[in-house]
Amino acid sequence: MNYRTLSAxxxxxxxxxxxxxxxxxxxxxxxxxxxxxxxTPVEKEELVYLLSKGKGAEPSIPGVSREExxxxxxxxxxxxxxxxxxxSLGLDKSDEFLREFASFKETLIAPFLIKNSxxxxxxxxxxxxxxxxxxxxxxxxxxxxxxxxxxxxxVLKMALKVKGEIENGGDINELAVQYSDDPSAKTNKGDLGYxxxxxxxxxxxxxxxxxxxxxxxxxxxxxxxxxxxxxxDRQPNPGQVRVSHILVRFDxxxxxxxxxxxRKISDIYTEIQKENTIWEDIVKTFSEDPGTKDNxxxxxxxxxxxxxxxxxxxxxxxTEIGEVSPPLRTQYGYHIxxxxxxxxxxxxxxxxxxxxxxxxxxSRSGMIQSQVVAVQKARYxxxxxxxxxxxxxxxxNDVTKSTFGGVLDSKGLTNTELFVLQGxxxxxxxxxxxxxxxxxxxxxxxxxxDTWYERYVASILAQTEEKDLESNNxxxxxxxxxxxxxxxxxxxxxxxxxxxxxxxxxxxxDFFRKNISDYQWKNRVDAYIVKVIDPTKLETARKTLQGNGxxxxxxxxxxxxxxxxxxxxxxxxxxxxxxEDHPILSKINLDLPYQEVxxxxxxxxxxxxxKFPSGPRKFEESRGxxxxxxxxxxxxNLTERLRGxxxxxxxxxxxxxxxxxxxx
Length: 664
Description:
The chain is built from 24 helices and 20 strands. The protein is α+β, with helices and mostly antiparallel strands. The strands form six sheets. Strands 4-3-6-5 form a four-stranded antiparallel sheet, with helices on both faces. It has a four-stranded antiparallel sheet with strand order 8-7-10-9, with helices on both faces. The radius of gyration is 38 Å and the shape is flat.
């Protein structure tokens, strides 16, 4: 059963009537025992923590009254009794619990990890950059295939030479045509247009955002080669724009076609300037973009760097909604644009998940992981045996995973120390055990040992950080306990109360009979109630309904007729109703079989049928209510039984300290 969503809420079942209160100051001594349940201690901080959960949602609540505290305390005791019983039944050892709790831990631990703070920093940095757009030009110097170190040095020297030319007054765009290995430089002269964060590879982005307009970068190494970058302009991000367009295509290799297209777009532009011209009609008639011509030419929202530069610049130059651009040429043909809407860049909160997804898909994810490992190594005293690692790397990088263990044994390397972490030595044999347990297909050119060793170190450091959090981070400890106990509470309640209440039919019937006084009908009447929404249909309804009384066949005929011809003219309800508290039936004459009444400005047509006096319900008529009440009965009995099974001892002094802590 998947109860991930419910279990967190059920952990606070004892808070249903208690409210949510702020935690201003935690208990001074966190090991003080508030109470014991059958000899199992419960610390004060757990009660204070749980009653303090709602501070963020209700910041104006000043504290907790004595009455509310006492009520919450009793509910807390009942909650802990049920957790104690679940543990006694071994529910915390079940496969289902272990799977669910392990899944919870993966989610709960994430905000506490070193990775989270580093990742958060990258998200904030990316968003900060997104608030600005940059226009830059570049020259790319690629490496030859299978380049040697000497080849790379030659490329670097060439990049530095061209940088010098630019700094001495050379035009980067003209030099791009001459030197750049970027194929697009032949047409755009190295001009990349405007872009913002996460639209270029990370080293390129970092270098560009570090430059002021007019400045030239040192050679920047990316997977494509070396780049020389010159920033032309920086300005605030204008956000997003939505335009519709008309497209006239042509073959760039055919001058005649292009000239015809230019004349056609000019004629269309002239037509648009005329009064009473309907844009959507012009688009449908003339646009050659099959994807948009039937929807007024409307394109999706886009921001800077998402369209080809000339199209983008024309779109963002429009300022008034409905403004139409002059014809512009792109590689796809001639366009006319109309501005439909503009909006500023979204807030960080709105973009956070999108930024996170993009960061984790590019090279930044590897950089973040490297930073995480570096911090973990420093925090937990990681000491690598560099000589051993160098030796093992030379011996084991060229072997396969399947022969790795055999080579270790044959060369007597199993006890070779890899590193020491928190005083514990990790050996090559530990690495081999890890390799056998992991299903991982290495990618890249790194050798077998280097690849697996890096992965093993990251795994051990992650385990060390998790254990450290469980031992030393009080907030994480309490959160983990909260969810653990919530799962156990759900399991016990599902077993002893909820499912039993639904499936125990004999128990339901017995409970119903013993509590029959709670399941009584008030005075009832058969009625068909028609509320008139469209007054022009009133006379038709009156003729159909008047004189028929509560007649199922006439009701069906009326329902079929009005739903087929005027489905919004009426709303109706029919059945047997308790009329004394009914908002309509309580205000009419129950002795008239047909009547019309005006209530709160609305006209109602009512046909009445048989009346029924008050009396006991049948079990079948009350089953839903009985199940609910029977579950409450089972819950109450469970709590009473557990209070007898597990003696509760309360430290009144510590209890008072908890009350004081909640009101500071």
